[in-house]
Amino acid sequence: MKTFKFNRLILIISTLTVGLLVLTSCGDIITKVEPEEPETKETTVVEEEPEEIEEPKEEPRVSELEGERYAIISDVDLSRVDENLQKPENLQKGGVVYIHRIENGLAFIDIIRDFGDVVLNYDSFRGYIPAENLILNPTEEDYKDKAITFHIKPGEVSAKETVTNNEIEISGGSYATALEIEDDQILIAQAGGGHSVWISKDDVDFDFSGFTGY
Fold first, then answer.
1. Distance CA 152, CA 176 (A)
2. Where in the chain does DSSP place strands (E)?
3. Where is the domain boundary, 141, 169, 187?
4. Which residues pair with 152 in a beta bridge?
5. Residue 129 to residue 93: CA distance in whole angstroms
6. Residue 99 lies in a domain
7. Which domain-ending residue is among 111, 141, 171?
8. pLDDT given at position 202
């Protein structure tokens, strides 16, 4: 009888032990199967400042020359003109030019001169100049205040030679550049050479329509 009870006790203990082992194994399985929550990484958003877009400078356009291709030189600096481009060599502030075209901010011009019957190479009187160095579409007041190039009115014009002080007459209808301007008198070099002469301002105007380039 005692042996039977002892064996029964051992059986109970064994059963409990097996049950405990089973529960322990199930717990491990549940623990392993349970999904891990993904780690959340903090992301810092860097806002980029918008780039400043530089507005292009407005360049003179060929359309601005419609109706007026004559301009007055306001600056003789040619440093902006590429060395490979043709440049005029006889620029004078106040000189009047004829504009053939404007491209990339550069004007291709002829400097208005009258050389009479003298045959010259005109290359030194034409070339590229920054358009910003010109007074485009000059007014009558611009010509009067700033121009040193004039059109001598047609006909015979009274003049006074500087060397001899002789009163002479010269033929008008040509262009001249003032060497000096005093009151109502202009000192000019005669077309084709000769002594410089003084003429009256009343005998000149700013009609350059007869000049369309060399």
1. 7
2. 70-73, 96-103, 106-111, 126-130, 134-136, 149-152, 156-161, 167-171, 175-182, 185-188, 197-200, 204-205
3. 141
4. 204
5. 12
6. yes
7. 141
8. 96
Place of tokens 């009067």: 144
Full-model pTM: 0.67
In whole angstroms, give the CA distance from residue 122 to residue 46: 63
Residue 52's pLDDT is 58
For the chain (214 residues), the mean pLDDT of every run of 10, in chain order, is 56 62 53 53 57 51 61 96 94 96 95 76 92 96 96 95 90 92 91 82 96 90
d(CA 135, CA 71): 5
Q: How many domains does the chain divide into?
A: 2
Give residue 189's pLDDT: 85
* Residue 112: CB atoms within 10 Å: 21
Look up the CATH number of the domain holding residue 187.
2.30.30.40
Q: Which residues contact 85 (CB under 8 A, 6 or more apart)?
A: 106, 127, 128
**Count of Cβ atoms closer than 10 Å to residue 130 Cβ:** 16
Give the span between the Cα atoms of 133 and 107, in whole angstroms: 9
In the block, tokens 């780039």 appear at 51
Domain limits for position 88: 62-141
Question: Do residues 67 and 130 share a domain?
Answer: yes
